[in-house]
Design a protein that fits this description.
327 residues, elongated, BirA Bifunctional Protein, domain 2, alpha+beta
Length: 327
C-alpha cells in the first residue's frame, strides 16, 4: 500500500490566478471534481458563507501584497498537503483531521502564520487534503518567493522537513530523495482524478451490442489505465528495491563506522593508560629528594645506562641471559 505524505506548491503570478484558485478552494465556482453533497463537510478559517470568506481572504491578500510587484513576480503561493489515497482511506475521519491539522501547523511555522490569507480542509474530493494560500514575504519584509522555494535543494529540504515533522508522526513515508519523477501541478492532479473516474465507469450498452462486443469495448476503454497502473506498480517495486539497497548501504557504512569508532576508543584507552603511567613517573621524580636522585644517577652510571628506559631495557636483557644460562 502506498503511504507517502504529499506536499506540493503552485506559484501564482497574477491577481486573476489568485482569485481563481481561491474560488476553487472555497467552491464559489463550479468544481466538477468535487462532490456537492460532501462540500458542507469542508472547513475554512474565515467565518460566514464561502462568498464572504472569499472576500475576506482576498482583502487580506491585497493588504499583504506590497504596492509595487515586478511584472513576473510571484504574488502568492498555493500549498497542497495530503497523502496517498490508500493510507488516507484507511484512516478514520478523526485521524484524517489530525493529520491535516498538523499539515497546517507545519506550513504556518515554515512560511509564517502572518503571511497566510486562506486555510481550508477539503473532504468533498477523492482524497481529503489541505489547501492554503500565502503571500511569500521573507523575514526582511520583502516579497521573495525564492527565499522559500528557490532551487531544487530548498524544495527537497522542505519535503524532508515535512516528512520528519508531519508524515513520520502519522506512519507515512517520504518520497525517494533525488527521484527524477516529476510532481504534478494541482490542476493536473485534479484532471487525472476526473479522467480516472470516467475511464473506470462502465459504458452504456449499445443497442444490438452482444455481450462479447460490450466486453471488448470496455476492455479497450480501461486498457490505457491498466497499463499505467502496471507501469506504476513496476516503478513502485523499483523504488522499494532502491530503498532496500540504500538501507543495506547505510547499514554497511554504519557497521564500518562503528568498527572505526571501536578501534579509536581502544587506542584512546591504551594511550590513556600510558599517559597515567607517565604522570605517575613524573610525580615520583618531582617528589624525590636530592639524595634519591643522586642514588639513581649512580645506578645509571654503574649500569652504563643513559636513562631509566635504557636501564630497564638492560635489566630485561640481563634477565633473559640469566634464564638462558639456567636452561
Amino acid at each position: 500500500m502506498a503511504n507517502y505524505c504529499i506536499f506540493r506548491t503552485k506559484k501564482l503570478k497574477t491577481d486573476g490566478n489568485v482569485g481563481g484558485s481561491v474560488s476553487h478552494a472555497l467552491r464559489t465556482r463550479e468544481t466538477p471534481n468535487a462532490d456537492a453533497e460532501r462540500t458542507p463537510q469542508n472547513w475554512y478559517n474565515w467565518k460566514g458563507t464561502p462568498e464572504e470568506a472569499q472576500q475576506r481572504a482576498m482583502a487580506k491578500y491585497r493588504a499583504l501584497l506590497p504596492e509595487k510587484v515586478r511584472k513576473n513576480g510571484v504574488r502568492a503561493v498555493e500549498l497542497l498537503m495530503t497523502a496517498s489515497p490508500e493510507i488516507m482511506k484507511s484512516k478514520t475521519r478523526k485521524e484524517q483531521i489530525a493529520y491535516l491539522n498538523d499539515c497546517m501547523h507545519w506550513a504556518e511555522d515554515v512560511f509564517g502564520k502572518e503571511n497566510i490569507f486562506l486555510k481550508s480542509q477539503q473532504f468533498d474530493e477523492t482524497t481529503p487534503h489541505v489547501s492554503m494560500f500565502l503571500v511569500p514575504i521573507d523575514p526582511k519584509g520583502k516579497l521573495n518567493c525564492r527565499h522559500y522555494l528557490g532551487g531544487r535543494e530548498k524544495l527537497s529540504a522542505l519535503q524532508t522537513d515535512f516528512y520528519e515533522r508531519v508524515g513520520k508522526k502519522h506512519g507515512m513515508e517520504r518520497g525517494i530523495k533525488g527521484s527524477k519523477a516529476k510532481h504534478q501541478t494541482i490542476r493536473q492532479y485534479y484532471a487525472e482524478l476526473n479522467s480516472l473516474d470516467k475511464a473506470i465507469t462502465p459504458p452504456k450498452k449499445k443497442m444490438l451490442e452482444s455481450p462479447e462486443e460490450y466486453q471488448e469495448r470496455y476492455k479497450q476503454q480501461i486498457s490505457p489505465f491498466v497499463k499505467t497502473s502496471l507501469k506504476a506498480e513496476r516503478i513502485k517495486q523499483q523504488n522499494e528495491q532502491h530503498k532496500k539497497m540504500q538501507s543495506a548501504a547505510l547499514a554497511s557504512q554504519k557497521k564500518h563506522h562503528e568498527s572505526q569508532i571501536t578501534g579509536l576508543y581502544e587506542d584512546l584507552q591504551k594511550k590513556s593508560k600510558i599517559n597515567q603511567k607517565l604522570l605517575k613517573e613524573r610525580d615520583y621524580w618531582l617528589n624525590s629528594s636530592p639524595e634519591e636522585l643522586q642514588e639513581w644517577v649512580n645506578i645509571l652510571k654503574k649500569a652504563n645506562a643513559k636513562n631509566i628506559s635504557d636501564l630497564k631495557n638492560l635489566e630485561k636483557k640481563e634477565k633473559l641471559k640469566q634464564q638462558e644460562i639456567e636452561r
